[in-house]
Specification:
The protein is α/β, with parallel strands linked by helices. Among the domains are: 105 residues, Phosphohistidine domain (Glucose Oxidase, domain 1), CATH 3.50.30.10; 109 residues, Orthogonal Bundle (Enzyme I, Chain A, domain 2). The chain is 48% helix and 12% strand. The strands form 2 sheets. Strands 1-8-7-3-4-5-6-2 form an 8-stranded mixed β-sheet. An 8-stranded parallel β-barrel has the order 9-10-11-12-13-14-15-16, surrounded by 7 helices. α16 links the parallel β12 and β13. It starts with a strand and ends in a 25-residue tail after the last helix. The C terminus is likely disordered. The structure holds phosphoenolpyruvate and magnesium ion (MG). Phosphoenolpyruvate binds next to α19.
Length: 599
């Protein structure tokens, strides 16, 4: 990569061309000053007034986001407002003023940094975003107390690309799109609040670009590509023209993606590929339907537990499964039984701490040890199956008897419901989620005793390569393109075909265009992905041929390294699709987690 081309994380798609403006949104220097005892009450009053004004300002920003983005994104500001309303936070600052005679701004800074250090010390990834919120609100209150202007965008008069160390959501939403055409931030990832807002407002952005402030001097001409996550410094006229042409081609693709929803998902040589949606939370049902999902290939059910302080009842679950099923008439909805454990233990469930939770009491193991919880879920699925095509899928299977016991329970609960006189199916198809090496190696036997196989490539990759899927340090090693994972994938597809059972893939891998090509070639004709990935996936399916996908898969199976596999797939895809339209360097996500699943 040329030293003019910097690589970060593309967090908001699109191309921006313009000179750099470097802004600093950091804590201002707060002078240490002690106030006389007689002024303590005045300082407390000053603090309260500033907090009140900032809260009002945040409420205004929230409304602005509701207008420019959505109600969901506007909630980002609630976190900051709530901090200022916390029972201990502001009162603690008042105590600091009264006891140590600090100025309001010094006391605020002191308290905020104390909390920041405490949170940072826990190393908890979720607290990172809270720290960003805390610092954002602190900068705002201190600027207000010190009568400093907040509006960093004021001086920008011509279209520019803003370069910052870190961008707060508040600053992002105040952007004037006529003048700020792109954003570069040293900090932040796709899930940072500022990134989410940049995406909603439609400003191309590259985050996580370490050293940006040092490398990019004010006034440097830039071409920012928010799809590929790159920033090109000092572009030549030819490079600028190329970037503009690429943007035009991408716009054309966007239009095609809107139309593709209505078109069949068939390869150029006539292979029909079923594309289903992965649904974690109820609001994704509509998104999956809108994007043309042919049913739900993975209905995660953990939110039913994590979003309540108690376990969900049979009625609640039956109603939910029926609702999802009825949203996809004529198509299957695959209910994955509770995949608790690992990183997903809800408060309602008193699980003992374990030294190695990902190798511990997880998923089907928990369900079989807690049969009443499991049987309740099975009954709910059977009841919903009276109205829709419901199927059950068992996660983290390693032993044949886990499937056999589950099937016996399904049969028993079918009889129990019939005795109750309840409208319910006597049984439902039961599938195995192949996401452990044990299940993949024994796929031929699992295929015989189950109704379908669905590969969870997130966990299958993690357990095969012994790479924690959530460990950023190992992100380079987390790849389903490793030859070992590829062999397992082929073996599972072959085993299903030999037994005459359908095989699908529902891990994140399926949503990535190059991998989708590989999976088609390996023999998977059902893919289930996050709803937002469906249009591009269908478009890809319609550009490629099964014959070429098979040839690419065969070549990939013979390759020595994951990089070689990527090169093979890139070449195969380039023959069908303009690769620059995609983000070929994108890291595969290790598995999306809905917010409600983590503490
Ligand atoms: C998987 O492991 O690939 C999968 C789809 O399940 P989850 O990401 O919920 O563990
Ligand atoms: Mg899994």
């Amino acid at each position: 990569m040329s030293d003019r081309l910097l690589k970060g994380i593309g967090v908001s798609a699109g191309i921006a061309i313009g000179p750099a403006i470097v802004v600093r949104w950091t804590l201002p220097e707060v002078p240490h000053r002690v106030v006389p005892r007689s002024q303590v009450t005045k300082e407390v009053r000053r603090l309260r007034a500033a907090v009140r004004d900032v809260k009002r300002h945040l409420a205004v920003l929230k409304e602005r986001v509701e207008d420019r983005a959505s109600v969901d994104e506007a909630r980002i500001f609630d976190a900051q407002i709530l901090m200022l309303e916390d029972q201990e936070f502001v009162p603690g600052i008042e105590d600091l003023i009264s006891e140590n005679h600090l100025t309001a701004e010094k006391a605020f800074e002191f308290k905020a940094l104390e909390i920041r250090d405490m949170w940072a010390g826990t190393g908890h990834p979720r607290l990172k975003e809270r720290i960003a919120d805390l610092i954002g609100v602190t900068i705002r209150v201190i600027n207000h107390l010190m009568h400093r202007s907040e509006d960093l965008w004021e001086g920008i008069s011509s279209p520019s690309v803003v370069v910052a160390q870190e961008l707060s959501p508040g600053l992002t939403v105040q952007l004037d799109r006529a003048h700020v055409v792109g954003l570069v931030s040293e900090q932040g990832t796709r899930t940072s609040h500022a990134a989410i807002l940049a995406h909603s407002i439609g400003i191309p952005a590259v985050f996580g670009l370490a050293g940006a402030i040092e490398r990019i001097h004010p006034g440097t001409m830039l071409v920012l590509d928010g799809t590929r996550g790159t920033v090109l410094l000092h572009p030549s006229p030819a490079e600028i023209a190329e970037a503009k042409a690429l943007e035009t081609r991408r716009r054309a693709l966007t239009l095609q993606l809107e139309q593709v929803v209505e078109q069949p998902s068939v390869t150029t040589d006539g292979c029909r590929v079923r594309l289903r949606g992965n649904v974690d939370l109820p609001d994704e049902i509509e998104a999956a339907r809108r994007h043309g999902a042919e049913g739900v290939g993975l209905l995660r059910t953990e939110f039913l537990i994590t979003s309540h302080s108690r376990l969900p009842t049979e009625d609640e679950q039956a109603e939910y499964f029926r609702r999802v099923g009825e949203a996809f008439p004529g198509h299957p909805v695959v209910v994955r039984t509770y995949d608790l454990g690992g990183d997903k233990f809800p408060a309602a469930f008193q699980a003992p701490p374990e030294p190695n939770p990902f190798l511990g009491w997880r998923a089907i193991r928990v369900c079989l040890d807690e049969p009443e919880i499991f049987r309740t879920q099975i009954r709910a699925a059977l009841r919903a199956a009276a109205h829709a095509q419901i199927q059950l899928m068992i996660p983290l299977v390693t032993r044949l008897e886990e499937v056999e016991i589950t099937r016996a329970m399904v049969a028993e609960e079918g009889i129990r419901l019939a005795r109750r006189g309840e409208a319910a199916a006597a049984s439902v198809p039961v599938g195995v989620m192949v996401e452990t090496p044990a299940a993949a190696v024994l796929a031929d036997r699992f295929a015989v005793i189950s109704d379908f196989l669905s590969v969870g490539t997130n966990d299958l990759t993690q357990y095969t390569l012994v790479v924690d899927r959530g460990n950023a340090r190992l992100a380079d090693r987390f790849t389903p393109h490793d030859p070992s994972v590829l062999r397992l994938l082929r073996q599972v597809a072959d085993a299903a075909r030999a037994a005459g059972k359908p095989a699908s893939v529902c891990g994140e891998m399926a949503s990535e265009p190059l991998s989708a090509l590989l999976l088609l070639g390996l023999g998977y004709e059902v893919l289930s992905v996050a709803p937002s990935a469906l249009p591009l996936l269908k478009w890809i399916v319609r550009q490629v041929s099964l014959t070429k996908a098979r040839a690419a898969a065969d070549a990939a199976l013979a390759a020595r390294t994951a990089d070689d596999v990527m090169a093979i797939l890139r070449d195969a895809m380039a023959a069908a699709v303009d690769l620059k339209l995609l983000d070929p360097d994108a890291r595969l996500p290790a598995g999306r987690r809905s917010a409600s699943l983590n503490p």
